[in-house]
Amino acid sequence: MNTRRWLQQAVRRTADKHEQQVFYLLVLGVVMALIVGALYLVNVAGTSTIGRQLEALLLEREQLEHSNEQLRIQIAELRSVPRLIARAEELGFRQVTQGEIEYLFVEGYRIVEQQTVAPLELSPLRLPEYDETLWGWIRLQANAMLSQFEAYNQLSTEG
Fold it and tell me: pTM here?
């Protein structure tokens, strides 16, 4: 009889443990789902914040480009020939007539016209003779490499 009672208690305990394990696994699953959901929300919030900042920077760039273009237009208007002539007249300048132009002659001053183009000298161009073969070039390269190895060996044995 004792054995039977002990067996019943063992089965009951095992069933209770199994139910507890299932309950704990469900709670663990819910907690993991909450953590993953929270991480997803943090990621989405950060991405949307960066997106808004990017939109603001793009809008600011467009505004700056527009203001730069307006400034270029103002500069072009201020540098226009009619504007410069009007400004010169405001400062007291006026256009001269042909009769008002006076040229001065300075004694001893000579205008030296320099030649702008160098004279061409046609001389025969001597090209070096090409008499090297592929095997000769390979031999030269191999000899150069061997001399480098020998120099390296001499340095390593001396040092």
Answer: 0.40
